[in-house]
From TrEMBL:
Principal subcellular localization: membrane
Pfam assignment, any one: BPD_transp_1
InterPro entries the UniProt entry points to: BP-dependent_transpt_permease (IPR050366), MetI-like (IPR000515), MetI-like_sf (IPR035906), OppC_N (IPR025966)
Source organism of this protein record: Pacificibacter maritimus
Annotated protein name in UniProt: Peptide/nickel transport system permease protein
Compartments (UniProt record): Cell membrane
Length: 301
């Protein structure tokens, strides 16, 4: 089956699931908004020359006292909430995608090696994964992030925060992928096509990366999709606690943290809109991930 035919089959199957289709459309729109956020944002909230303190604390435009220029209102600096949401969504999705990409890279490599070669390689890798499983992912991300941050001088910590968060989240979740890939590789390694490749004289790495790995990727795609939601949620939690993205490069979590201080003063829009976008994003990713798991796992069809 060619990739195009398979894609058409998935799209056709998606049309029979209205809720999943709706979630997928929402997710697609969010990705497009994040991708083109610098051009779609009505204003540049980071350009201090364009900010006016007289425009601060404005409610959404449809409320009394609102300004038509700021549809979702402004924050304490006079920055447009809609622009902040677009750029914050871009940051959250970028962190989630890169962190999961790093987890997949580490977990896939170690899972392939442990599942194919077995022996002491498998023992070392799986025991390392077991040790890491004893630590909650959130605490491990905090630990890794704190250690990485301490290696940078104080004046460089804010500019390097993005890479530190990606590194912390990526390292904290690789064991899930390693275990999943190892189990798939063990199942594939005993099949006839692998035996035939060995008899044909192919090398171990040729068999591993050209034959075994492509047949072990379906569960990885499913876990990676659902893990994006985990990475985004963890990053938002870290940012809310003050260990994630800085105020100069805010994510949805940073916007929620900043807005929380104004919640009880009546300026609910500063925190409610970022929270709503985060919830909708997480639900959409999880719904799409559940559907993808059902599609790619023959046992669930």
């Amino acid at each position: 089956m060619t990739p195009m035919i398979a894609l058409r089959g998935h799209v056709r199957a998606l049309s029979f699931k209205p809720f999943v289709l709706f979630a997928s459309i929402i997710l697609f729109l969010m990705v497009m908004i994040a991708l083109f956020a610098p051009w779609l944002a009505p204003t540049d909230p980071y350009d201090l020359a364009t900010l006016d303190l007289f425009d601060s604390h404005l409610p959404p435009s449809w409320m009394s006292g609102g300004d038509a220029r700021y549809f979702l209102g402004t924050d304490s600096q006079g920055a447009d909430i809609m622009s902040l949401l677009m750029l914050g969504l871009r940051t959250s999705l970028t962190v989630g995608l890169l962190a999961v990409g790093l987890s997949v890279l580490i977990g896939l490599t170690l899972g392939l090696l442990s599942g194919y070669f077995r022996g002491w390689i498998e023992t070392v890798i799986m025991r390392a994964a077991d040790i890491q499983f004893t630590f909650p992912a959130m605490l491990l991300a905090l630990l890794i992030g704190g250690l990485a941050r301490s290696m940078f001088p104080v004046n460089k910590q804010e500019s390097s925060a993005f890479f530190i968060v990606v590194l912390a989240l990526g390292i904290s979740h690789w064991p899930h992928f390693a275990r999943l890939v190892r189990a798939a590789v063990i199942s594939e390694a005993g099949k006839n096509y692998v035996m035939a490749s060995r008899l044909a004289g192919r090398g171990h790495f040729g068999i591993l990366f050209r034959h075994v790995m492509p047949n072990s990727l379906n569960p990885v795609f499913v876990l990676a999709t659902m893990d994006i939601a985990f990475a985004i949620m963890t990053e938002a939690t870290l940012s809310f606690l003050g260990f994630g993205m800085p105020a100069s490069q805010p994510s949805l979590g940073t916007l929620i943290k900043v807005g929380y201080g104004y919640l009880f003063s009546g300026e609910w829009w500063v925190v409610v809109f970022p929270s709503a976008i985060l919830i909708i994003l997480l639900v959409s990713v999880n719904v799409f991930g559940d559907w993808l798991r059902d599609r790619l796992d023959p046992k669930l069809r």
